[in-house]
Design goal:
This protein is mainly α and 227 residues long. The protein folds into 2 domains: 5-140, Orthogonal Bundle (Ribonuclease iii, N-terminal Endonuclease Domain, Chain A), CATH 1.10.1520.10; 153-226, Double Stranded RNA Binding Domain. The chain has 10 helices and 3 strands, in the order H-H-H-H-H-H-H-H-H-E-E-E-H. It has a 3-stranded antiparallel sheet, covered by helices on one side. Helix 2 (19-25) packs across helix 7 (110-140). The longest helix has 31 residues, at 110-140.
């Protein structure tokens, strides 16, 4: 049994009823013929991911047409985004590869991470069903869903910041954190900051968390353009 699997379950915030699904999801095809690997789970996970993201966008944007929904889905479900989320989860540490493959490629490629994350989604689906898979996906794709906009990234500061961090930080996603709540319940103000890989990029203050996040992203973009 891979000794990294218990730690991986903590990082992904999901405990498998049958850990053999997790083991299979982490088994790379380089293990060789005759050994079960994660390719079939990858196929399944890709389909489940597409369904859940499409469902989430359909619900969030009731006035958007098919073209806008498809564009937003493509901005979320792509190799760069999946590899970035896999890195955030440190999935590469749990991948089981052959010794020959590890000598040739000591660090997992973006493609391996993308495939591994899709296999992991497939494993969660097999272990806990669609509700478990939906919860897993919405939890780890939250930042990407929040950044989605039918107007496109040009008019959406969170989307623009998402594109910048994916380009300059190997697919990593911005993390928004509430710092402070100020004032009485009827007149509440929120202070939010946005970080990437531990570095603070910007802060925002508003009467709603969503708007504070948007302002934080806007301030981050302004600071990045001046640096």
């Amino acid at each position: 049994m891979n000794s990294n699997l218990p730690e991986l379950q903590e990082r992904i915030a999901y405990s498998f009823q049958d850990v053999s699904w997790l083991l299979l999801a982490c088994t790379h095809a380089s293990q060789g013929t005759g050994v079960d690997d994660n390719q079939r789970l990858e196929f399944l996970g890709d389909a489940v991911l597409g369904l859940v993201i499409a469902e989430a966008l359909y619900t969030r944007f009731p006035d958007s047409d098919e073209g806008a929904l498809d564009h937003m889905r493509a901005g979320i479900v792509n190799g760069r985004s999946l590899a970035g989320i896999a890195r955030n989860l440190q999935l590469g540490e749990a991948l089981i590869v052959s010794e020959a493959h590890r000598r040739h490629l000591p660090e997992p490629s973006d493609s391996m991470l993308e495939d591994g994350l899709e296999a992991l989604i497939g494993a969660v689906y097999q272990d806990g069903g669609l509700d478990a898979a939906r919860g897993f996906i919405l939890r780890h794709f939250q930042a990407l869903l929040d950044a989605a906009s039918p107007d496109g990234p040009q008019l959406n500061p969170k989307g623009r910041l998402q594109e910048w961090t994916q380009k300059h930080h190997q697919g990593a996603t911005p993390q928004y954190e509430e710092l402070e709540r100020m004032g009485p319940d009827h007149d509440r103000t929120y202070k939010v900051q946005v970080r990437i890989e531990g570095h603070i990029l910007g802060q925002g203050v508003s009467s709603s968390i969503k708007e504070a996040e948007r302002i934080a992203a806007q301030n981050a973009l302004r600071a990045l353009m001046q640096s």
